[in-house]
Amino acid sequence: MLLRVLCGYLFDQMKRIALATSAAYPSLTDDDRTLIPALRALDIEAEPAIWSESARDWSVYDCVVLRSCWDYHLRLREFLQWLTALAAIGVPILNPPPLLRWNSDKVYLRDLEKRGISVIPTVWPDSQFCLATAMRELEWQQAVVKPRVSATAYKTSLVSLNDIAEAQHALADLQASSGVLVQKFMPEIRSEGEWSLVFFAGEFSHGVIKTPKAGDFRVQHDYGGLETPLVPPDDVVQDAKQVVQAIDTTPLYARVDGVITQGSFQLMELELIEPALFLKSSLGAADRFAAAIAVAF
């Protein structure tokens, strides 16, 4: 009896956090599940929690850490309302809601560019935008058209001048919904790969190189892309760290995606909401993330 009481007391003293996920991953991804034992070793009890589950009592948690909320871009208004509701009942959210809202629209790239970050060539179409004219004037052989609100290459397409008519229609559809951006296609994606550099509490943790399958341009695992753990050059780490330091608030976690072109690192995307963090790819990565969580709330 005494042992049960003692165990109950100790459990009550442990911090309890929710690792927010989506309905498609109710038990988290294999990668994110490595966080649970790492947090338990720090006396933090963590459990998966589906962000869109209306019946859940979020007030029981000391903190919510976003992980595989991989449907947020399809339900953005609902997702942002959920963040507001959590904040209203005093539940800390990591990363914090203002940062998440800023990062939910890829127009944040324009903000970072104004702060001196090197971003791959990007155009923000207005209502009169002609894709063919823009590509010819910019001398782009290929371009990537993507929604301003998206994840996992959702509605993202690679276009060239010989298939421009179809791409213009797709672009118009995106303009009418979440908005659209057009980026120069970087051939280094296929020849060298795309870097993903992971940071915890502003400090570099580990990196991977992502490469698309033959004939594709998308590096995501969903489309046959491969991730290879690799130690990035020091200058690439410093360039990526400058991206993180350009943010108003130091994030708990961040993934900086970019390519090396003509000897310099150029940002493709900064992921602050629900990026895969490749915790299993680097020894101690889950422990480093857990340690950052432990001091964040």
How many domains would you count in the coordinates? 3
Sequence of secondary-structure elements: HEHHEEHEHHEHEEHEHEEEHEEH
Number of strands: 13
Task: Tell me, rounded to a whole number, the average pLDDT.
Answer: 92
Strand count, sense and barrel status of the largest sheet are: 5 strands, antiparallel
Which class best fits the helix and strand makeup?
alpha+beta
- Low-confidence parts, pLDDT < 50 over ≥5 residues? 2-11
CATH fold field value of the largest domain: Rossmann fold
- If classified by CATH, what would the architecture of the largest domain be? 3-Layer(aba) Sandwich
What strand order characterises the main sheet? 11-10-9-12-13
The number of distinct helices, counting runs of at least 4 residues, comes to: 11
Please sum up the structure shown.
With 297 residues, the chain is α+β, with helices and mostly antiparallel strands. The protein folds into three domains: 2-103, Rossmann fold; 108-119 and 188-272, D-amino Acid Aminotransferase, Chain A, domain 1 (2-Layer Sandwich), CATH 3.30.470; 122-184, 2-Layer Sandwich (Dna Ligase, domain 1).
